[in-house]
Amino acid sequence: MLRQTSEQHFDTVVVGGGQAGLAIGYFLARQDRDFVILDAGGRVGETWRNRWDSLRLFTPAFHDGLPGMPFPAPESYFPTKDETADYLEAYARKFDLPVHLGRHVDLLSRHASGYLLSVGDERYVTENVVVATGPYQRPKIPAFAAGLDPAIVQLHSSDYRNPKQLPEADVLVVGAGNSGAEISVDLAATRHTYLSGRDAGYIPVSLIHNRLSLWLADRVLTTDTRLGRKMSEAHRDRGAPLVRLKPKHIAAAGVERVPRVEGVVDGKPRLADGRTLGVAAVVWATGFRLDFGWIELPIFDDGGYPIHHRGVVQTTPGLYFLGLPFQYTPTSEHVGGVGNDARYISEHIAMRSPRWPAHLRSVHAGR
């Protein structure tokens, strides 16, 4: 028997129910829009719950709140990943956001009425689409990893939970950004740990704790300024700088810094200086690839990155991105920074949509 395909119509569909999707949902709800948030998870905040046990946010609580709801913790406190997940769940509940769970979007394409999203046997037709899936999509692991001895346990950082997953023997963490640094310190308490990767720099905690610094960063270091564009390019090429852990903290934990891993020799990881390491496990903290293969629209550059300005795809009206790394400022992918981009996109949607009351459209037009 053939299964019947259902079709639903909304003014706006948001893909992704993490902090970015919830932030835009807050503003869409205030506009009294007919919208839905589609999320592949089984619970709001699931992505955070599934990360490693000791993870804390890299920014203090005063910078971890979404629009309309401060994070419920002392200002200088760094929330745990489960506290963050609970906060997102409470946020969706407080503002009664229409999050539809268990909805993995298979395809986004054009439609006579705007856009069509395929979700299994469901079809969503909409005038506006906000892609809020964030930067953590497909784990990135170098091809030469396949050449490692099968006896060496390999995990990507997205699958790492705690040291008990790995043998109690020497381990190599590849990737010296925030995730790699935090995981290496976590492991170093119980075994000798090597940390490989180029130095991405360090942001002093005093700046992260300083409201004025964050305020200035969001107004000076933007993709509309030369300095901001330069920093954005560095962010994409080198990754984000360390925030909470200083290099001296990593050394004090007993982590041994080594050069970049460049290949495999006799089944062992080979470093840039020619050494090979006899380790029992490798954790690949090498980041993620953006995966937009489900979007059948000509909106990407040669590297598969969406072409946009502040999340607005100007060549395809009604299509938006939210929560991308350095989408507009250094804090665009932060829990506490995504709200500014969400507000901007919501106002753009309001201006182009004839469904918004005329007197409110005129107010925004005069901004």
Give a brief rundown of this model.
By secondary structure, the protein is an alpha/beta fold. The protein has helices at 19-30, 46-49, 81-94, 178-188, 205-208, 211-220, 226-238, 247-252, 338-352, 358-365; strands spanning 6-15, 35-38, 99-100, 107-111, 114-119, 122-131, 138-139, 153-156, 171-174, 193-196, 256-258, 261-265, 268-271, 281-284, 288-289, 319-321.
Explain the overall architecture:
The strands form four sheets. Strands 1, 2, 3, 4, 5, 6 and 16 form a seven-stranded mixed β-sheet that branches. It is globular and about 60 Å long. It has 367 residues and is of the alpha/beta class. It has ten helices and 16 strands. The N and C termini lie far apart (56 Å). The longest helix has 15 residues, at 338-352. The chain has helices at 19-30, 46-49, 81-94, 178-188, 205-208, 211-220, 226-238, 247-252, 338-352, 358-365, and strands at residues 6-15, 35-38, 99-100, 107-111, 114-119, 122-131, 138-139, 153-156, 171-174, 193-196, 256-258, 261-265, 268-271, 281-284, 288-289, 319-321. It has two domains: 6-137 and 290-365, FAD/NAD(P)-binding domain; 140-202 and 241-284, FAD/NAD(P)-binding domain (3-Layer(bba) Sandwich).
How many helices does DSSP assign? 10
Provide the low-confidence segments as ranges.
356-367
* Termini separation: 56 Å
Number of strands: 16
Radius of gyration: 22 Å
Query: Considering DSSP H and I runs of 4 or more, what fraction of the residues is helical?
Result: 25-40%
The structure class reads alpha/beta
Looking at the structure, the CATH topology of the largest domain is FAD/NAD(P)-binding domain
Instruction: Assess the beta-strand content as a share of residues.
Output: 15-25%
